[in-house]
């Protein structure tokens, strides 16, 4: 079961994600899937990873990093530090939900 989610990073930039939770159990392992520079969460290289994990009953959350895809921010000014902040904010979101 895929679910679109939105949350904010520490700079209050909106981050878009897709939670794929085949078992519906949020207490189980969730793999965070990231894309490369200039890519996005729905790229042809990212979706098959989520599908493979789901086929093994492993949940995943793939996100658009700041400035990419449906997330806020500007790709021209995004940095590795911004991406790290996005990942840490993703972990915080998962812990809270």
Oligomer: single chain
Poorly predicted regions are none
Query: If you compute it from the alpha carbons, what radius of gyration comes out, rounded to the nearest whole angstrom?
Result: 13 Å
Helix vs. strand class: alpha+beta
Shape: globular
* Fraction of helical residues: 25-40%
Count every beta strand, where a strand is a DSSP E run of 2 or more residues: 4
- Biggest β-sheet description: 4 strands, mixed
Please, how many helices?
2
Order of helices and strands: EEEHEH
Question: Cα distance, first to last residue?
Answer: 16 Å
Q: Look at the structure and give the mean pLDDT.
A: 94
Q: Strand order across the biggest sheet?
A: 1-2-4-3
What does this molecule look like?
This protein is α+β, with helices and mostly antiparallel strands and 97 residues long. It is 27% helix and 24% strand. It has helices spanning 47-55, 80-96, and strands spanning 2-8, 14-20, 30-33, 59-63. Strand 1 and strand 2 form a beta hairpin. The mean pLDDT is 94.
Can you tag this structure with a few keywords?
globular, 97 residues, single chain, 4 strands, four-stranded mixed beta sheet, alpha+beta
Task: Describe the secondary structure blueprint for this structure.
Blueprint: E1 2-8, E2 14-20, E3 30-33, H1 47-55, E4 59-63, H2 80-96
Parallel strand pairs: 3-4
Antiparallel strand pairs: 1-2, 2-4
In short:
27% of the residues lie in helices and 24% in strands.
């Amino acid at each position: 079961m895929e679910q679109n989610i939105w949350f904010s990073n520490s700079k209050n930039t909106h981050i878009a994600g897709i939670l794929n939770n085949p078992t519906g159990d949020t207490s189980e392992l969730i793999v965070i899937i990231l894309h490369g520079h200039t890519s996005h969460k729905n790229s042809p290289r990212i979706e098959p990873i989520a599908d493979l994990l789901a086929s093994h009953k492993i949940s995943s959350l793939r996100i658009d990093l700041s400035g990419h895809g449906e997330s806020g921010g500007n790709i021209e000014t995004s940095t590795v530090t911004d991406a790290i902040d996005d990942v840490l904010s993703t972990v915080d979101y998962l812990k809270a939900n």
